[in-house]
Amino acid sequence: MIATHHGLVPDQVFVGNGSDEVLAHAFQALFQHGLPVLMPDVSYSFYPVYCRLYGIPHEPVPVRAGFRIDVRDYARPAGKVGGVVLANPNAPTGIALPLSDIEALLRLQPDCVVLVDEAYVDFGGDSAVRLIDRYPNLLVVQTLSKSRGLAGLRVGYALGQADLIEALARVKDSFNSYPLDRLAQAGAVASFKADAYFRETCARVVRSRERLVAGLRARGFEVLPSAANFVFATHPTHDAGELAQHLRDQAILVRHFKLPRIEQHLRISVGTDAECTRLLEALRVLLAP
Length: 289
Ligand SMILES: Cc1ncc(COP(=O)(O)O)c(C=O)c1O
Prior knowledge:
- The protein is of the alpha/beta class.
- The chain has helices at 2-5, 18-30, 46-54, 99-108, 162-173, 182-193, 195-218, 240-249, 273-287, and strands at 13-16, 37-40, 58-61, 83-87, 114-117, 138-143, 156-160, 222-223, 230-234, 255-256, 266-269.
- Helix content is 38%, strand content 16%.
- The protein has a 7-stranded mixed beta sheet with strand order 1-7-6-5-4-2-3, sandwiched between helices.
């Protein structure tokens, strides 16, 4: 079902219990453990965790001004890189790279696996799946947890050429040789069958996101261009940590990362229109002079 949905054949698909599990297997099976794995310094926090777990060195590559990934920063001499991983759209910034940049990256690093984590791609990103047949070093990872709203079902998958998929299956089988449970399989199949509903839901999230972005900008926030189901925003005169705490006091949860470079930003999930309205109203009061 997943293969057909993406125009691939079954041996180009590996399914796991959530994309976190798929990522963990990919880090173990596909990256060269003696060489550094390159990743943006601002990205999904689990990537360095997997590297540390498996004893793989990792090299954070600083994102440029405006949190932009410049793929030219991933150029290294041949034989010096154990792999590359990035999220597209990136988390927590929401910024998407065009497919031409992913292709440039695959050409820059032809001798190691380039893992593109497309957890949020359905909200406006451009999927690299169509590059799979041309690039044997490309692994695309997707999940049913975000755009399909099925995080509790724990279904994620990797797409790539058959050799990469076979390597993943070998590591998985040495760890837990059973497939996904039947409920998860049934839920996943039902989700792929309900394509019209899926598209409508994604479109609704995108509409709510645009409304949220406009409301935040009207309140003075600088908001990065988001192709995800969250936005990343900073206010020029209000401390992000304090804003997050004041919102929390009103039972409105936004994410504040106490991390270098992003400590003045908030990652705000796109809720329902009613939730976004509540957030914007709470911010109007908090930001009032
Ligand atoms: C970029 C990214 N990749 C992967 C995941 C993992 O999602 P799951 O394990 O639910 O598929 C997340 C979840 O937050 C994410 O943000």
